[in-house]
Design brief:
83 residues, 3 helices, mainly alpha
Length: 83
């Protein structure tokens, strides 16, 4: 798909230099940059979501579940380990 965009002259020159040096098209450089930007946005969204989840205090139910899992770990995995 072709599109037309306006970019500052300095960015165009920089992209052109990179494309020539890497023997790639300017389009490839822009596509790679947009992909990386979208990946960064998604990572930020996930990070923010996790921070939101972990910002809330642990509920009694979550605390009980965590304790049960820790007890199970102690009875199974740690029992087999030599200390």
């Amino acid at each position: 798909m072709k599109i037309a965009i306006s970019i500052p002259e300095s960015i165009f020159r920089d992209v052109k230099k990179v494309a020539e040096k890497q023997k790639r098209s300017r389009s490839e450089i822009f596509v790679e940059a947009v992909r990386e930007y979208l990946t960064k946005l998604e990572s930020r969204r996930i990070f923010d979501s996790l921070n939101e989840v972990y910002a809330a205090p642990e509920t009694e139910e979550e605390r009980d579940a965590r304790r049960s899992e820790l007890d199970l770990y102690k009875r199974t995995v740690l029992k087999r380990e030599e200390w």
